[in-house]
Amino acid sequence: MTHENPYRDVPSSDFDPYATEVLADPYPHYERLRELGPWAWLERYGVLAVARHDEVQRILSQPDVFCSSAGVGLANFHTEKPWRKPSIILETDPPDHGRTRKVVARVLSPASIGRLRATFEEVAARMVDELVERGSFDAAKDLCEAFPIKAFGDAVGLPAAGRQHLLPYGDMVFNGFGPINERFRSRMESAGETVDWIAKVCQRDALTKDGLGAQLFAAADAGEIEHEEAGMLVRTLLSAGLDTTVFTLCNAIQSFGRHPEQWALLREDPSMARQALEEVLRYDSTFHSFYRTSTRDVELGGITVKAGQKIAVFIASANRDPRRWPDADRFDVTRRATGHMAFGTGIHGCAGQMMARLEGEIVLTALARRVESIRLDGQPVQHFNNTVRGLKSMPVTVTPLSVAVH
User: Fold this and answer.
1) What is 12-400's CATH number, 3.90.226.10, 1.20.120.230, 1.10.630.10, 1.10.10.10?
2) What is the pTM of this model?
């Protein structure tokens, strides 16, 4: 099925961002999409698309014109019944958005997250030491998954048992931002036990008394949010805070494995870990696309966008736009990647981005202090999802530094 293009000055494209071959290597496709112009009409889905940095930034920076309340996925919640409850922070517009965002922003403030640094560093150092001792391991499972599930799970206050459900839950949520395709249906068919576990652990009595989840319920006690909303915000932390960090770590190790000269730079100066992480986020963004919906007719990029128009926003493409980034397809940890949009931007930018940055920085620092070289053992196995991009297996062999750096 194709959808007729109502925009005379916008080129049509049969590009399918959810096709397996596109998800396997999206960047050549993004380049072609950018070259079509500021806008493209995706005839398979009946949506406008933006893939260049400037247009993506403008759309994400104008929440009054390009709203989130119609859903940040392909489905339009203003014209069709949502298949799930909309997120009360990601899929609300001002002024409602500000009320819940304020609470989450405080719970995930730099000061709050900073108190977790020492504990996270201990977890990362212990894991890295054990893996370096082994020499060969599956970096995706043994580090990139294991660290956030342990460190972030403890920080939220989750019970230790059942955490194997965390990644399947996030996978279900992010698949749901795309079309109702086989990828989404197969995940939903196996989601029953996972959904039940998530519902249980988002309740107050399942959480520790001193974690981030307990802080959300304390905000409900203070009347800032409803108690039901506190549980929903815990659920949001779990869907948004795990898979994306796992895949970012996967993309980092894969990038360094493929570019040993860049690893040498970080190894020589572990204090570059945060800067290197920003380049990873730009170069191989975990979140590839989401949607906004126009609230009125608006002029942008040389056309009049009609009110109620769904717009696919390709942030991973924007982060490789040569109009913004010189030599954009080159991985370069000395690059100042400020301005990338891997976490979105504007009022709906990722509320947990400081947490993700802390975790990424700590893991890369721990590796840089212990590892001389990273070798990919064969081709990593990709995890296919409609919205986020990462790996499910990545066998590596690491060579330890003769003297660990402290």
Assistant:
1) 1.10.630.10
2) 0.95
